[in-house]
């Protein structure tokens, strides 16, 4: 009799675990992002001007509380909302490892300077 009760309890626990996994997979269906992640939705490049390329990208992010969509290591990422609020763009480490970051004078964005002297300028909307 005891063995039967244990078997039923284990069966019930297994069914509960299965249902939780099923519910979790339904919540994270294709097209939904996990919390704290971003993906690039569109990327447009305009090279019509000599020696200048204008790139515009749109990212979709699912940021956690206190975070907002930003840029880290030249990729979209969730960053601390205070960085964006204070416009201290270089604090989110937007440039690649070998690049230097500088704020634009009016704090509307930042520049990433490569060792060879090439400069990439990013402005925030």
From TrEMBL:
<protein>
    <recommendedName>
        <fullName>TAFA chemokine like family member 5</fullName>
    </recommendedName>
</protein>
<keyword id="KW-1133">Transmembrane helix</keyword>
<feature type="transmembrane region" description="Helical">
    <location>
        <begin position="6"/>
        <end position="23"/>
    </location>
</feature>
<dbReference type="GO" id="GO:0005615">
    <property type="term" value="C:extracellular space"/>
</dbReference>
<keyword id="KW-0812">Transmembrane</keyword>
<comment type="similarity">
    <text>Belongs to the TAFA family.</text>
</comment>
<dbReference type="InterPro" id="IPR020350">
    <property type="entry name" value="Chemokine-like_TAFA"/>
</dbReference>
<dbReference type="Pfam" id="PF12020">
    <property type="entry name" value="TAFA"/>
</dbReference>
<dbReference type="GO" id="GO:0007186">
    <property type="term" value="P:G protein-coupled receptor signaling pathway"/>
</dbReference>
<dbReference type="GO" id="GO:0048018">
    <property type="term" value="F:receptor ligand activity"/>
</dbReference>
<keyword id="KW-0472">Membrane</keyword>
<dbReference type="InterPro" id="IPR040329">
    <property type="entry name" value="TAFA-5"/>
</dbReference>
<keyword id="KW-0732">Signal</keyword>
<dbReference type="GO" id="GO:0001664">
    <property type="term" value="F:G protein-coupled receptor binding"/>
</dbReference>
């Amino acid at each position: 009799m005891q063995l039967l009760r244990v078997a039923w309890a284990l069966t019930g626990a297994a069914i509960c675990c299965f249902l939780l996994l099923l519910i979790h997979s339904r919540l994270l269906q294709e097209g939904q992002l996990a919390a704290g992640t971003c993906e690039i939705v569109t990327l447009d490049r305009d090279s019509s001007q000599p020696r200048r390329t204008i790139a515009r990208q749109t990212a979709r992010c699912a940021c956690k509380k206190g975070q907002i969509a930003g840029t880290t290591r030249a990729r979209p990422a969730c960053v601390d909302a205070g960085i964006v609020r204070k416009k201290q763009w270089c604090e989110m480490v937007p440039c690649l490892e070998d690049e230097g970051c500088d704020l634009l004078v009016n704090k509307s964005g930042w520049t990433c300077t490569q060792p060879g002297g090439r400069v990439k300028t990013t402005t925030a909307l």
